[in-house]
Amino acid sequence: MNPDRAVIVQADDIGMCPATVSALPELLDGGLVNSISLMAPCPSFHAAAEWCRHHPEMEAGLHITLNSEWESYRWRALATKEFLPRTLEELTGLDASAAVAEARAQMEQFQNAGLTCTHIDAHMFALRHLFPAEYLNLAAEWQVPALAKPPFDHIAVAPNEGDPENRLDVLKALFDGLPPGLSCVILHPASDTPELRAIVPKWRYRVADLAAARDPRLLAHVHSLGIRLVTYRALPPPTAATD
After folding, report:
1. How far is Cα 169 from Cα 227, in angstroms, rounded to an integer?
2. Which residues contact 32 (CB under 8 A, 6 or more apart)?
3. Which long-range contacts (CB under 8 A, 24 or more apart) does 166-170 make?
4. Residue 60: helix, strand or coil by DSSP?
5. Region 119-124: what's the mean pLDDT?
6. Residue 219 has what pLDDT?
7. Tell me, what's the pLDDT at 94?
8. Distance of CA 165 to the CA centre of its chain
9. What is the CATH number of domain 5-234?
10. Residue 1 pLDDT more than 70?
């Protein structure tokens, strides 16, 4: 047992579609997920924001979104009203100023929905990887922590591989393997709906993430490891990038 392990368990892609919003009550009741990240350009963002306004105990951050990856389900940029590119490869020619403008438009949408942002991160890590300095500078400007190293020592995304029916054991093993320090474990939970099945080819993993997150056996396992569940509110104030 490592008593020096602290973890934020985060649900990503909230607001992408209705199945991510209907999952929220179950995530809250499950007690494992203590942070969610909302996609401001997506069709179900406002429904997710309404739920968050009534449940401030669940941390809500901005999942800065520069791409729209699904073939049959697309969303537009808030700054330009054009459809966001599907692939990360299509983003390689994006100008930094355009990326920052879109991030600002998404934060404005987030705040106009009556939400207080607890953190920022980047959908598919796009903004963080393509424009790391701008990403950290936005966090410093907005005075919210960013999902980045530092302050995190380790970031783990639940894998979309293996047998979804074995998700509980997969996630137990993920927590078992976390190193000392501060980690973020990212899940993509969603309810099982016909729409989700039509949108996401690997929808079974998202449904399995929800089932595991609400399973008391997973929470009990995390506690048995001596892992402390913490929140973004416990993190130090961000600083701007130096390069």
Report:
1. 17
2. 9, 213, 214, 218, 219, 222, 229
3. 167/205, 167/208, 167/209, 167/211, 167/212, 168/211, 168/212, 168/215, 168/217, 168/218
4. strand
5. 98
6. 98
7. 94
8. 23
9. 3.20.20.370
10. no
Q: With the C-alpha atoms ordered 235, 240, 242, 243, is the resulting torsion angle positive or negative?
A: positive
Alpha-carbon distance 46 to 51, whole Å? 9
Average pLDDT of span 65-89? 97
Exposure string of 74-100, with b = 16+ CB inside 10 Å and e = fewer, is: ebebbbeeeebbeebeebeebeeeebb
| Measured distance CA(170)–CA(132) in Å, rounded | 31
Cα–Cα distance for residue pair 78/161, rounded to 1 Å? 33
Average pLDDT over residues 48-75: 97
The region that residue 193 occupies, defined by phi over 0 for left and psi between -120 and 50 for alpha, beta otherwise, is: beta
In degrees, rounded to 5, the angle at the alpha carbon of residue 41 between the alpha carbons of residues 9 and 196 is: 65
Closest CA to 126 of 48, 74, 66: 66
Q: Residue 20 belongs to what H/E stretch?
A: helix 18-22
pTM above 0.90, yes or no: yes
Q: Domain segments of the chain: what residues?
A: 5-234
At what angle are helices 132-142 and 96-112 packed, to 10 degrees? 30
Alpha helix stretches (DSSP H) within 131-227 = 132-142, 167-176, 194-199, 203-213, 216-224
The DSSP element (H or E) to which 155 belongs, if any, is strand 154-157
Whether 3 has a pLDDT exceeding 60, the answer reads no
